[in-house]
Amino acid sequence: MYPVYEISKEQAQRIIQIEENFLNDVKAKEIKPAKLSETVSAFSNAGGGDIFIGISETGDKKVRSWSGFSDVEEANDFSQTLFSAHPFGNHLIFEFLKCSGYDGYILHITVKKVKEIVKSTKGEIFIRINAGKAKLDTNEKIKRLELDKGIYTFEDEWVNVNIDRIENSISIINFLINVVPNAESLTYLNNQEIIRDEQSKVVGVLLFCDEPVIYLPKRCSVKIMRYKTKDDDIGREYLDGVPLTVEGDAYNLIYDSVSKTKELIEGIKKLGAVGLEEISYPDVTLHEIITNAVLHRDYSITADIQVRIFDNRIEIESPGRLPGHVTEHNILDTQSARNPNLVRLINKFPNPPNQDVGEGLNTAFSAMEALRLKPPIIKEKESSVLVVIPHESLASPEELVIEFLESHNEITNKIARDITGIKSENTMKNVFLRLKERGVIEPIPERKGAASAWRKITI
């Protein structure tokens, strides 16, 4: 028996009017369980989502209404059919919702993203796209899904190489210093099944070739760009100088990319309470997020990792979606390595970049909080993962305005937006009005229109 929850009329209306999108769907109770299994497959093979069954749509305009099951037993076929399609059952949570004044029970199914592929009752594979679903009907499409989920990992693919470039590389010499027991490079590489004849696995090229770009072009570089703007909508006119490309084996790629990123950040100034201040991001945050991008990117995608440095944030974008069951919401609480051999072997280097395996992102978030900065934002895009590291204080806008006025005679809307990170003039004006209501600040009478400003009230 699944739980039954009483909800308010306001909550019921929110469910009735919910927007169907990548994460939400509504269905009438008349839908066939086998047909519903296609939607469940699509959600579970993408980012997960919520399905509400018992919402009818009528007329050309598809007006929605609550039309639930007469009792919870009426929905038994759904759970039985869906579990028979995927016997693990680890991807589904069922609950019923009822509301006074509305007829019947709504079945709410939470579909979780899982590492394994979820099929429909017919054995077909679907994936969620926007507010609909698409069937994966070719081997190429299914292979792409396996790569996205981390079922199949590109790091195990074989690449034709000059074995000498791996066997006698600076990287393998540095690596073997730390390996117990000691071994000759060729012996170690063979024992680990990384090389054969004149071939190496991708992981071997990434770790032990001093110039992996020779064999894996556009897959093992980090491109660093500096944009002199705070805007989201950027163009080449904001690009400062020529983008910097960092290359090398995975170990040096991480450390060199962090170093170059820090160098570019050092020249950025930000308006603070006492004037222009140097921007400072925690070293550990930059290190952990760039490490994560290099170790967990999808190497089957021909694209560089991008580090974009703005006046008020850093964006780090790595190719590939989040692997396995990892989502934007559970990424700090769970683990799923897309490239497990890369993660394992790089940890054997002296001073490994992933010193605290599995704790990197948590460490990055904690470091931001320690500096009283807002936490990083993780966004899963269509074929990449974007991490935004904002340089915005955890202090409220009101606190920042008051702090600024401790050492300045006045503050304008523009200056206030600069120090708070607020983009809207009207939103900033509302902050001023709240402080005015508390008797903290007042408008300067002679300053009108675009020149208007505020000052502290002195008693």
Automatic annotation (TrEMBL):
Residues covered by the Schlafen AlbA-2 domain: 25-136
InterPro entries: RecG_C_sf (IPR038475), Schlafen_AlbA_2_dom (IPR007421), Schlafen_AlbA_2_dom_sf (IPR038461)
Domain of life: Bacteria
A Pfam match: SLFN_AlbA_2
Signal peptide boundaries: none
Alphabetized UniProt keyword annotations: ATP-binding, Nucleotide-binding
Family matches, as Gene3D superfamilies: 3.30.565.60, Schlafen, AAA domain
GO MF assignments: ATP binding
Coiled coil (residue ranges): none
Name of the protein in its database record: ATP-binding protein
Species assigned in the record: Candidatus Methylobacter titanis
